[in-house]
Amino acid sequence: MREDIVTGAKFPDYILPDHTRTPRRLSDLQGDQFMVIMLTRGFFCPKDRQQMLELVRFHPQLAVGYTQVVTITTDDWHTTNNYRQQTSAPWPFLYDEERIVQKDLDIKEYTDTSHDVMIPHTIVLGRGLEVAKVYNGYYYWGRPSVAELHAELRELARRTYSDWDITRPELRKKWQEGDKSDFYPYGKNSISMETLMLQMAGAVDQYAGRAKGH
């Protein structure tokens, strides 16, 4: 992994086609939410498939926790669709046959002489594609468990949302006075409830460009 892809850095805003062959920009897929990116070897890898199945089971919690998911693979379009369908993953799969991500991040799995793939990584991003955590999954146990993702996202949310603890007297006072600036998504610089619901549903074509950023 490139040395500059560390906690606090901005992850590259790649544009790649998704499983419908529609070009997607990572920041558009993210909106103003968190994001978990799975860089996968591809359809053939049983380790990646097992991790994918765990993420599928975890996904309902990610959705209500304002967290997007995206998978990036070097498979072709047809194989990418098979991969997504056979794991029942509801999120976007981006395919990168030209190995743009593999080359840019310097994650070619050089020990695999049969496939030109990426070393698997799982990356947790805060708002604005800010890197919160990078997991190297070359060995399966290097990948985050659902419990680890939960803990990482909890800490990320605690740092991100100013209304994390609404029992604080000063927050209660602000709300009672009609000052919602510190409350998500009601604040002046936040997003509409409509956009929030669209992001939770993954309806990127409807919400892209609406979020105001934070």
UniProtKB/TrEMBL annotation:
<dbReference type="InterPro" id="IPR036249">
    <property type="entry name" value="Thioredoxin-like_sf"/>
</dbReference>
<dbReference type="Pfam" id="PF00578">
    <property type="entry name" value="AhpC-TSA"/>
</dbReference>
<dbReference type="InterPro" id="IPR000866">
    <property type="entry name" value="AhpC/TSA"/>
</dbReference>
<feature type="domain" description="Alkyl hydroperoxide reductase subunit C/ Thiol specific antioxidant">
    <location>
        <begin position="8"/>
        <end position="129"/>
    </location>
</feature>
<protein>
    <submittedName>
        <fullName>Redoxin domain-containing protein</fullName>
    </submittedName>
</protein>
